[in-house]
Amino acid sequence: MKKLSALGVVLIGLGILTGINGTIVDADSSATTSANATVEKPDPNDPEDTGETGDGETGDPTDPDGDDEYTPDESNPGTPGLLRIDHAPSSFDFGTIKVGRKQTKYAGLESGSATDGAEKSVPNYVKVTDNTGNFAGWELSVSRTEFTNQEDDTQTLDGTELSFNNAYANAGSKGAGMPTTVASDVNIPVNSKTVLVQAHENEGMGEWFYVLGENNEEAEKSVALDVPVKQYAPGNYSSTLDWNLTDAPSDSSNME
After folding, report:
1. pLDDT digit string (tens) for 73-104?
2. Domain extents in the chain
3. Euclidean distance between CA atoms 173 and 79, whole angstroms
């Protein structure tokens, strides 16, 4: 089974800032993206910080429509080849985490431009192309590492939960054969493969998008980070999110 990987998302925990170093690589290789998060102590003089639960915060939203009218501000390509990941999100920005508070933060959406040059935001998405012509199908999965303090690797954001919600598959201009299995709402555990899309025999030919949110309103809360009440050490944390594409679907418990 041929396996292609592209690490495509920068995770930013509450107030988190991230940067990506997406790299085009040969088939059977991988591309990686760093994910960064900043944790801060609460301000005793800030009413928002003294509450038991913080309101979710989002960045800018919107949606990919399956055509070529959108160009991301930050390109984060995957792998070349007949079966490939053409694009993965450049970053997930969840804002700033204040310790000692239970909270849910939401990632902002991708920013780019339309063909007329106007600014345009779209939901986070992964684009897959299958030009193999063998009609065998494919599988898109993701895995992530724990958020780890950049200066002290003994400190992590253990207990936080990342999830994708409102996801769906959308055919591009050259897509045919709707994939049978798509994970609409799914948790992304640490160091574990999570299957997102399975295109079986005679499915998933051409261009396909795995989109997090069908419209702007949904997309605003489609990438969530749940943070428990815990005394995390202040500092900058980093994590890595890997998107993987294989040339045939596997048996996976999270798709049942």
Report:
1. 666 666 678 888 888 888 888 888 888 889 89
2. 3-255
3. 20
